Predict the structure.
Amino acid sequence: MPFSATVMNVLIASPSDVPEERTTIAQSLHEWNSLHSATQGIILLPVMWETHSAPAMGDRPQGLINDRVVRGCDMLIGSFWTKIGSPTGVEISGTVEEIKWFLTQKKPVMLYYSKKSVDLDTVDLEQVKKLKEFKASIRDKGIQDDYRDLQELKEKLSRHLTIVLRDMSIAPVIDKRIVEAAKASTRDDGDDTQRRRAVNRVRLPAKDDVYLEKSTPKSFIIRGSTSGLKNQIEAEGGKFISLQSGGKAWMFSNSHLNAVAKILDIEPIVREKSE
């Protein structure tokens, strides 16, 4: 069914060592659209220099990309691993130049840093040093987080997008309140998990009363009571939909399975659709 929406161009920025992350970020934006565009009236359009620029002459390469790609975008999502990139004549790398332009324009910036293992014999330590220095120089700017693999990147990005876009108008600013909400939504579950649960106790539904059920080949719904978990479910990206069988339920794409199961404190198992 047709609906009106604001299209936001999202620049995907990164050095050359994270090609899979670039694809993953684009896929995450498409998944967010499928779950939220109709209800929030926003469509996120991935923009990458590979697909949105063409060879040209007359300026330095990054300057051409800035004019033809960067300045037409509304927010930036970036990824780093071991590289900062190559100098542009203005900044230490094209990615850094793009990020600084967005920050100067007070447009949203969301950056993610890979914690994947790496063979040190293949790493340029000078690049690593410059990346660390850059990260430290903007530590209080925008949303920044780490990830261990592509699945974690997708999960964190989905939660952060939901939180950021919920409070966004055109050309928004990510303020301290939004940053804190985003950090809280993806705080690492380590040894202090039980301590945090004790401090911030949320009444969980009984495990026998709640389970996950297949909705489509690419999505599932929550069956049973989710009392007290609304904020966590929304932060994870849940969409409250009407069911053909009657009633309503929270729906997620399959990529959120483990995160949703953790919220509900149940096993990440999806049952077949009830007859």
Summary: The chain has two domains: 6-185, 207-271. The mean pLDDT is 82. Residues 74 and 170 are 8 Å apart (CA to CA). Residues 19-40 form the longest helix (22 residues).
